[in-house]
Design goal:
Strand content: over 45%
Shape: globular
Mean pLDDT: 95
Structural class: mainly beta
Number of strands: 11
Length: about 130
Amino acid sequence: QVQLVESGGGLVQAGGSLRLSCAPSGRTFSLYVMSWFRQAPGEEREFVAGVRLNDGSTVYIDSVKGRFAISRDNTKNMVYLEMNNLKPEDTANYYCTAGPPGPTSPQDMASWGRYAAWGQGTQVTVSS
């Protein structure tokens, strides 16, 4: 099994920045993709960004392209989400998730079913 722990959320003004961190533990050798999803109150959980761990290639939803960057540090076994120019509509609970080897098209990575482990979430609130 894999356990995921997120950190780095908080309250920030519009235009500000935050960096979320995700620390996987357990059977991490089995991981192939890691992503961030978010869920705002009353909304469905949505894919934000994902990284393929073998080559570091990334996928983003259109609304965060150019503002968010997902990265992995294989030496520290960490995944990060750097969020810049934050907007009030980015307010949500952000979840780190991880999946085993399998399809890695953008559509597959945006699917809940692609992932086997989820963190507890970290709240990001952006004030206007």
